[in-house]
Amino acid sequence: MEIGIVGAPNSGKSTFFNALTLCNAETGNRPFVTIKPNQGVAYVKVKCPHSEIGQKCSPVHGYCKNGWRFVPIKVWDVAGLVPDAWQGKGLGNQFLNDIMVADGLIHVLDASGSTDTHGNVVGVGKFNPEETVIFLKKEMQYWIKGIIDRAWPNLRHVKNELAASVLAKQISGLGISEDYIKKCLIEINSGQRICDWNEELKLEFAELLRQKSKPMIIAANKADIKESEENIRKLKEKFPDETIMPVSAEAELALRKASEQGIIEYVPGESEFKILKEIPEKQKAALEFIRENILKRFGGTGVQQVLNKVAFDVLGMIVVFPVEDQAKLSDSKGNVLPDAMLLKKGSTAIELAYKVHTSIGNSFVAAINCKTGQKIGKDTELKSGDIVKIIAR
Ligand SMILES: Nc1nc2c(ncn2[C@@H]2O[C@H](COP(=O)(O)OP(=O)(O)OP(=O)(O)O)[C@@H](O)[C@H]2O)c(=O)[nH]1
Ligand SMILES: [Mg+2]
Asked: Among candidates 318, 278, 329, 361, which has minimal Cα distance to 51?
């Protein structure tokens, strides 16, 4: 499970990435600060079942804070895209191939209108971010089209019925099933040989594939700037089908850093924090600004909310807790609820077993739903929050 962060230069992608991961990716108020991709571990947030079972948990991966379990997920921050990047403008779009494996994307957008589509600083409110929404989607579509273009010559001697199978192999990096490719080909149904499709049909096909393999939501960033609120309202009105969420990456980064340093008590995604010690007036004022202008106004900084939205609502992931000891709900070393695993909705007990380890999958006998004590078979669908013991040979 991986998430890519994309957007125009200078929109706040690396700040958003740092807020999620507490990495130190370079940031700066100019275009193309990021050239090489940054990779890090972020955490989606779910209720930890430890309170339900009345025990303290001891996570081996991720962490638990105030009853919330933070489950690791890989994120990528890449360079900025500019209009016509697919034709080589700016840094081009080759770097998108680094996020070919991503299951979903977050488009970080400068909602304050203070930077243009090239990342140039133009002054708050001087640029209409609607333009960025349109061009970014187009760039993603053209990127996918570039990938299918390379596969197209291989369709020349192939009947339409076999095109999906050839394409599935050629574009396997995108992780799209042959069935889905077939569905898209049928949906376009041009009545022609697929190898003869014109650019327009190929673009239509590319967009269908993009929606499936790289669903994207918009993090309307820099919401701490006053002008952003009205821009976000207009964006939502103009693009009712897009998921657009107000975000202040800078505020989230400040809160997480202050929390890491023990200055405040803050759980990512919450709408409040508590100052724990005496701090200089300036720092206090900065934190109070965040409280008044972001947390109270938007109910949070939006960073955790965006990540959770992509993982759970857009990609339909669930979180399951595998254990080795049914009675103690622990691993063999006594760590209670040691792991929390992100799985696709509809995943079964055997799929969980394979995710834990191939050898456990291979020797799977049955599983136990530890909350109910019931034995479950390999094809039993798991639910989010399930605690599961796998019985292997
Ligand atoms: N006001 C405000 N500024 C922000 C926010 N997030 C980022 N910035 C500022 O926006 C500028 C660009 O931030 P980066 O994170 O470097 O942007 P980027 O999209 O990674 O830029 P490139 O790597 O050049 O494409 C920096 O000056 C940040 O401090 C935010 O939430 N609010
Ligand atoms: Mg960057």
From this structure: 329
